[in-house]
Amino acid sequence: MWLIAVFICLGWILSVCIHEFGHAVVAYLGGDKSVKDKGYLTLNPLKYTHPVYSLLLPILFLLMGGIALPGGAVYINHRRLRSRWWKSAVSAAGPFASIVVTILLTIPFGLGWATPSVEHWIWPSLAFLVLLEIASVLLNLLPIPPLDGYGIIEPWLPRKTQIKLNKFSKYGIWILFALLWYVQPLNQLFWNWTYTISDFLGISPQMAGHGYYLFRQQSNILILGLVGCLWLFRRKEVGWYNRGEKLRKSQRYEEAIASYEAAIKIQPKYSEAWYAKASLLYQLQRYEEALVAYEKIIQIQPEEAHAWFVRGWILGELQQYDQAIASYDKAIEIEENLDEVWFYRAKTLEKWKRYEDAIASYDKAIQIKPNYPDAWYNKACCYALLGNVSTAIETLKHAINFNPEQLREKAKTDSSFDAIRENQLFKNLWHHN
After folding, report:
1. % of the chain residues with pLDDT over 90
2. What percentage of the chain has pLDDT greater than the value 70?
């Protein structure tokens, strides 16, 4: 009966939606409000960024007898999350949502509705779906990049370790599948865990196995249908965007920009392509062109605080200070608790020689992130430039305590302290440290 394959595939799609919704809603609570503008706070699978990689290909692997791990469908701006705890929580939210789905799917078995004596295709199909959910959760919780298990621990790893491990993120999932496919002891261990948990939840391996048998019998026609869907879902703009990303990694920047522009020509409101183009122009210090691109992003997503923030930074570099401050203020209006925005707003005011206003902005950054060494340091510079020696030195002490190696040496030659360098209190600071 073809309904079996349809039932399992639709159940899987719904579970993927709930998994990704879990990531998105926790990211929203943690400070990344952009997920709302991107349409991720929904269970509508059409809102996902990559319907092919996030939904269709996993289902195709499922139909071919593999495990359909959810593809990364939501883009989280981790810079906007308020702390490492929130970053870990965002990664944990997806597997947690999948666990909830798994438990809900076992309710009919716990109530005794689904017993071997009850002859109906839905119960073995549901048992097989539960088995897939358990397998998915177990795999997702492994501490291997780019899986969610790694995402949970990543914020707590040293930065150098993160950089090294992230280099393997695009290969991690394929290495894992190769190990499970070719190394039989690992494969057997994994499925033993899966069946043990399944049995604990009241799902007999025999019933789940029968569901898999029924599913495989009816899956061939759906495989052909999904291949057709893959073709229909093919988006040329995504192809150009992906080409741009590869060219960028190869440092072929002009060709990358041309590819992003080709994607934008097909889909003028393709915000990811605009972002990629804008950030690359920014990286190349082509600030006026980058400014145009960020302003286009703002037209598409007016509540995108990060775009307003980078626009402000670029305007500051172009010495258009009043417009830069207005852009920072708009970012703050959208999302007040962004320490980075307050910090760079203060730096712009400092360049503008509005030192008292800069100090007030540095204070806001420090209020949000108390151990912000650069904010403490720049605040000390402003006090020194105002001639407030004692406060400058006390503030500088705080900065050096947070980052002694770098900031102690920097302060020794920083021109901001030239006016107080011969002051005995300043000299005592170095003897004290």
Report:
1. 32
2. 84
Residue 83, SS3 per DSSP: coil
Rounded to an integer, the average pLDDT of 247-252 is: 86
Give me the long-range contacts of 266-270 (CB less than 8 A, separation at least 24): 266/236, 266/237, 266/240, 267/235, 267/237, 269/300, 270/237, 270/241
pLDDT of residue 229: 58
CATH number at residue 280: 1.25.40.10
Residues ≥6 apart with Cβ < 8 Å to 323: 315
Residue 182: how many other CB atoms lie within 10 Å: 9
Report pTM: 0.59
Phi and psi angles of residue 328, each rounded to the nearest 5 degrees, phi first: -60, -40
| Torsion region of 283: left, alpha or beta (phi above 0 gives left; psi -120 to 50 gives alpha) | alpha
Number of domains in the chain: 2
Give residue 341's pLDDT band: very low, low, confident or very high (50, 70, 90). Answer: very high
For residues 314 and 307, is the Cβ–Cβ distance under 8 A? Answer: no
The tokens of 97 are what? 């949502």
Alpha-carbon separation of residue 424 from 272, 366, 389, 393, 398 (angstroms): 54, 28, 10, 11, 18
Which of 20, 154, 272, 335 is catalytic? The answer is 20
Range of the domain at 274: 235-287
Structure tokens at 176: 């894992």
Residue 35 covered by a domain: yes
- Average pLDDT of span 55-83: 62
Q: Is 303 a catalytic residue?
A: no
pLDDT the model gives residue 254 = 94
